UniProtKB/TrEMBL annotation:
It comes from Eiseniibacteriota bacterium. This is Amidohydrolase. InterPro entries: Amidohydrolase, Bact_exopeptidase_dim_dom, Peptidase_M20, Peptidase_M20_dimer. Residues 193-288 form the Peptidase M20 dimerisation domain. The lineage of its organism: Bacteria, Candidatus Eiseniibacteriota. The keyword Lipid biosynthesis does not apply.
Length: 408
């Protein structure tokens, strides 16, 4: 199954397909990093204001929000969110829409997310007389870090009128186009970051006894940190500890005085997360004593786990089954990737789900964050169809407001 073929996608979205592709490719040619999405935000605003919508712009810097009201006000509002930022990656694709910004690339599908949501807004406007529900649409900066969701929440995107549920999707190249992954409960991991700076004593490579070698200390730490999962975490739990950068030294015969390491901790379980943080700090402290070095340690509490409300997840799975068939709804997929959609889902019940976007036959199955990442654009109308059906089915499925089970 791929994209539009044989799926019950409304004609309005089929008619918008070319516009979806053009809009996505324009964003792809001009990617922008976190909190610098000025052109992207301008393009979104230009598209939506042509339909007479009032927009709130400049939220958390470059974020946008708009409200489409139903003609029969039920006093109830739900939210849909897309992320707009790109990554600091030099694109290696050779398409005619390859990035024109050297060293910056849409390598995670956010250009597709933005196009899907923008065209969902336009189709929602065209169908507004058939629906009672209010829908808020949020275009968010900086998902790749340091995070735009929490600043947007703090600037009121869940208020006026208050939002009672939140939904979002992520194009997913680990799934064939036309499949949808919906998981109740923990879906994506907490994505935390740590920084380690080792202060040793530099010296000549021929006289190591006169120095305190930051490279050796760093290498020891990289190895020791692997025990946090293999020997310190309950094997029936899930966790990842990865060192992503290791910078030290200036020449082959100089013992490095300083080394800097950065890494990430990924967990679903908050108790596991707390234990790893505690043990990580202990290992760093004792390593410093063992090697007579000074080590600075910083742990950055970034994104919490993305946790789907069980009732909302079941609802989205039902909607997805209407469109792609029950056999194409995956119910048990979880990812160690992190997402700041998690902050929305801490405030209100909701569901974040994956939309399969891979077509191996066309070599559209590269991993996310790869310099060769691209996806099957034919799934974009499918994403919009799912968002529209969530709006259309929501009040029947939830005739009364849910208690905010995820509120902090």
């Amino acid at each position: 199954m791929s994209g539009l073929d044989g799926l019950p996608i409304r004609q309005g979205l089929r008619d918008r397909f070319e516009s979806m592709v053009d809009f996505r490719r324009d964003l792809h040619r001009h990617p922008e990093l976190a909190f610098k999405e000025e052109r992207t935000a301008h393009q979104v605003a230009s598209l939506l204001t042509k339909s007479g919508l009032e927009l709130r712009t400049g939220i958390a810097g470059t974020g946008i929000a708009t409200l489409v009201e139903g003609p029969r006000d039920p006093g109830r509002t739900i939210l849909f969110r897309a992320d707009m930022d790109a990554l600091p990656i030099h694109e290696e694709n050779t398409t005619d829409y390859v990035s024109k910004n050297a060293g910056v690339m849409h390598a995670c599908g956010h250009d597709g997310h933005t196009s899907i949501l923008a065209h969902t807004v336009l189709e929602t406007l065209a169908l507004r007389d058939t629906r009672a529900l209010h829908s808020r649409f949020v275009f968010q900066p900086a998902e790749e870090g340091p995070g735009g969701a929490l600043p947007m929440i703090r600037e009121g995107v869940l208020q006026d009128p208050p939002v009672e549920a939140a939904f979002g999707l992520h194009l997913w190249n680990k799934l064939e186009a036309g499949k949808v992954a919906v998981t109740a409960g923990p879906f994506m991991a907490a994505a935390d970051e740590f920084h380690i700076t080792i202060h040793g004593l530099g010296g000549h490579g021929a006289y190591p006894h006169d120095a305190i070698d930051a490279v050796v200390i760093g290498s020891y730490l990289v190895t020791a940190l692997q025990t946090l999962v293999s020997r310190d975490t309950n094997p029936v739990k899930t966790a990842v500890v990865s060192v992503g950068t290791f910078h030290a030294g200036s020449n082959f015969n100089i013992i490095a005085e300083t080394a800097r390491l950065k890494g990430t901790v990924r967990t679903f379980d908050l108790e596991v997360r707390a234990r790893i943080i505690e043990r990580l700090q202990t290992i760093v402290e004792h390593t410093a004593k063992m090697f007579r070095a000074k080590i600075d340690f910083e742990f950055l509490d970034t994104y919490p786990p993305t946790v789907n409300d069980p009732e909302m997840a079941e609802f989205v799975a039902e909607v997805a089954a209407e469109v792609v068939g029950q056999e194409n709804v995956v119910r048990d997929l979880v990812s160690m990737g992190g997402e700041d959609m998690s902050f929305f889902l801490q405030e209100v019940p909701g569901c974040y789900f994956f939309l399969g976007s891979a077509d191996p036959s066309r070599k559209l199955d590269e991993s996310h964050h790869s310099p060769r990442f691209d996806f099957d654009e034919r799934v974009m109308p499918l994403g919009a169809e799912l968002f529209l059906r969530i709006q259309e089915r929501y009040l029947a499925r939830f005739p009364e407001k849910l208690i905010r089970t995820g509120a902090r």
